[in-house]
Design a protein that fits this description.
Chain A: Keywords: Membrane, Transmembrane, Transmembrane helix. Chain A is 73% helix and 1% strand. Chain A has 500 residues and is an all-alpha fold. In chain B, helix 3 runs antiparallel to helix 4 and helix 4 runs antiparallel to helix 5. The chains are: A mainly alpha (500), B mainly alpha (139).
């Protein structure tokens, strides 16, 4: 591809019309991301019909904006209400919500914004410069390595989140069990339908995510509510600058955390099927693990927010690596994006760079501009969202519930999905009360189908003989790291409990 | 026996019940392939049972359950179920405002302006946006 094509493509992204659609997408994305129940994936799905009439670049630019804006918007309710707007933001709540309780919600939201934009820009630069070689590297991970990577992710996540390893293991197993409902991916035989044909496709993802993360939190807060109505979030007046903003020194202190999060997110985004939720939790886990003072995490540590937001946002750019170079969508948002490409008559794949280089670099330009719009829109929007969300709990929660019901109804196409949402809200309440880590359950549920598929492929490749693992050294290392992390984290937790 | 141990024991028995009663009835057995449909559910259930037993004997956590909170959760979920059924049966535009209103009253909100805003303006606004602007069908 010649240099002139690259410049022409990047220049296309800067035309006022394209910029306007990117900005509109970012604004819509931040708004819907901030609303628990309607995430960027659903917003993108709803928006696709409206992009039919547009040219490819503004159409894709708009959807890119919705996706990127949604990742930042999702952090807002996670920080303010402990109710993640998107599953990706669940890890952000771990340190974001304690900061809100300490009267520093603006500081937490600004850190989330800066970390998101940093991670996103990092992954976009990686995408632009090393898209093709990185995708080839990611593709060299076969099913055995992907299965080992998932086992490692599960061991880290279940070991780090929650009170004990046994609780984390139970939550993981419950998530995997819930993911097995529906047709078995290998033999297409039904499992755990209990006479309900609607479960052939499994539990709807929207119902599970919104039910267990949003509705269960609302249910618990309503149940514990006593006496006078109060705002859902109390942002103290007369805050000092330190309490409401992130200084450059604080940002700079997180530079290695941001870099690690961006690297993890970019790598995981380039591996189809892993997703931004796993990236956020892996980044959080590794940051906590390497910190000198891990006990400060979960109590309002800015590094926790920086780790999760940089990782989950950097997945958005890296998602495009397998999408554009190989035509493989690696996530739900990338799957919607591939649909938008096909509607526009564009076939993503290796030939795209050759045949429509100008458009590809136009999209890259739109992605960079979306990051700038995200920063500007966020700095303005954070104040707006935090003002909107200072309404009384009764108003915020009743509207959020109506949106959850509407969103799940639209996403699943019927009331059955809404009843499933209520079922998972009850499961979420029980797990929270009994101190089982709910987020571990959700991650296991999301990764469950991929886990089972990888297990089946691994068993076939190894021909049922574990010794054949010797031919897969990367997988062996990952399995060894999984065992070691469970042992090490178990010992650490036991020592901490003994010292408490 | 502590409440923590009672709940863990219930979980272990549920796991055993699923493994030996529900799984054979609800998962078809297949005689071919490296893994069968029951492989992952079986692994997950054994993890639940073993981790549950470990937790039963080692955990010293103290779980506190408040009866009043439990009743409020049950009442809240009942409102949700009935509201969704009514919305499905009679239409979103008629029962979403009733749903929002009942939730607000349940939470103790009595200020008329907030009740009016959240129970009527927002649900009808959502209905208008989804049905007329987005052209998506609500019940």
């Amino acid at each position: 591809m010649d240099f002139a094509t690259i410049i022409a493509g990047l220049t296309d992204a800067l035309t006022p019309l394209n910029l306007l659609f990117v900005l509109a997408g970012v604004f819509v994305g931040q708004f819907v991301g901030a609303m628990p129940g309607i995430g960027p994936v659903m917003a993108m799905a709803i928006a696709i019909p409206f992009t039919f009439a547009l040219n490819p670049l503004p159409a894709i630019g708009f959807l890119v904006g919705v996706n990127k804006g949604g990742l930042i918007g999702g952090a807002i309710p996670a920080i303010l209400l402990n109710t993640p707007g998107t599953p990706d933001a669940a890890a952000t709540a771990i340190d974001g919500y304690p900061l809100t309780k300490q009267g520093k919600p603006l500081k937490a939201m600004k850190m989330a914004l800066y970390a998101s934009v940093t991670g996103d820009t990092f992954s976009d630069i990686v995408l632009i410069t090393v898209a093709a070689p990185l995708a080839i590297l990611a593709l060299q991970l076969g099913p055995v390595e992907i299965f080992a990577l998932m086992v490692f992710a599960f061991s880290l996540i279940s070991g780090l989140i929650g009170d004990s390893i046994s609780r984390g293991a139970i939550a993981t197993a419950l998530g995997l069990l819930a993911a097995t409902v529906g047709l078995d991916p290998e033999h297409s035989t039904p499992r755990f339908l209990f006479g309900m044909f609607q479960l052939y496709d499994g539990f709807p993802i929207a119902s599970v995510a919104i039910g267990s993360l949003a509705v269960s939190e609302i249910t618990l807060r309503v149940a514990r509510m006593r006496g006078k109505m109060r705002p859902a979030v109390v942002i103290p007046k007369n805050q000092t600058k330190d309490q409401k903003s992130v200084s450059f020194a604080e940002y700079w202190a997180c530079r290695f955390v941001l870099l690690r999060g961006s690297l993890i997110g970019t790598f995981i985004g380039a591996v189809p099927g892993m997703g931004s939720t796993a990236a956020a939790f892996m980044s959080y886990a590794s940051t906590k693990q390497t910190a000198k003072d891990p006990s400060s995490f979960g109590k309002g540590d800015l590094r926790g927010i920086a780790a999760t937001e940089s990782a989950n946002s950097s997945v958005a750019g890296a998602d495009f690596i397998p999408l554009l170079t190989l035509g493989l969508p690696g996530s739900a948002s990338a799957a919607i994006m591939i649909g938008a490409f096909l509607i526009q008559g564009i076939q993503p794949g290796p030939l795209l760079f050759e045949q429509q280089g100008q458009l590809v670099y136009g999209i890259f330009g739109a992605m960079i501009m979306a990051n700038a719009c995200n920063l500007l829109c966020g700095l303005f929007g954070l104040r707006l969202w935090s003002k909107l969300i200072t309404a009384p709990e009764s108003v915020v929660f009743s509207i959020a519930l109506v949106l959850c019901v509407t969103g799940v109804y639209l996403a699943t196409g019927g009331a059955f999905g809404v009843f499933v949402m209520i079922l998972f809200a009850v499961i979420g309440v029980i797990m929270t009360v009994l101190r089982y880590p709910l987020v571990v359950f959700i991650i296991a549920f999301f990764l469950g189908p991929r886990f089972e598929l990888s297990l089946g492929q691994t068993a076939t490749i190894l021909r049922g003989d574990v010794w054949n693992l010797a031919n897969h050294p990367v997988a062996v290392v990952l399995f060894a790291m999984s065992i070691f992390s469970i042992y090490w984290l178990g010992i650490k937790k036991r020592r901490r409990k003994a010292s408490d | 026996m502590t409440a923590e141990r009672i709940y863990t024991a219930i979980l272990v028995f549920l796991g055993l019940g699923f493994l030996f009663i529900a799984l054979p009835q609800q998962v078809e057995s297949v005689g071919y392939g490296r893994i069968v449909p029951a492989t992952v559910p079986t692994i997950a259930l054994w993890v639940i049972i073993i981790a549950g037993i470990v937790q039963f004997f080692t955990s010293k956590e103290c779980i506190e359950l408040h009866l009043a909170d439990s009743f409020r959760v049950i009442a809240f979920v009942a409102i949700l179920v009935v509201a969704v059924w009514l919305i499905e049966k009679f239409g979103f535009e008629y029962f979403a405002p009733v749903f929002a209103l009942s939730i607000m009253l349940f939470m103790g909100e009595r200020r008329w302006y907030w009740l009016l805003f959240a129970a009527f303006v927002m649900p009808l606004g959502i209905w208008f946006l989804v049905e007329n602007v987005l052209n998506r069908v609500l019940p």
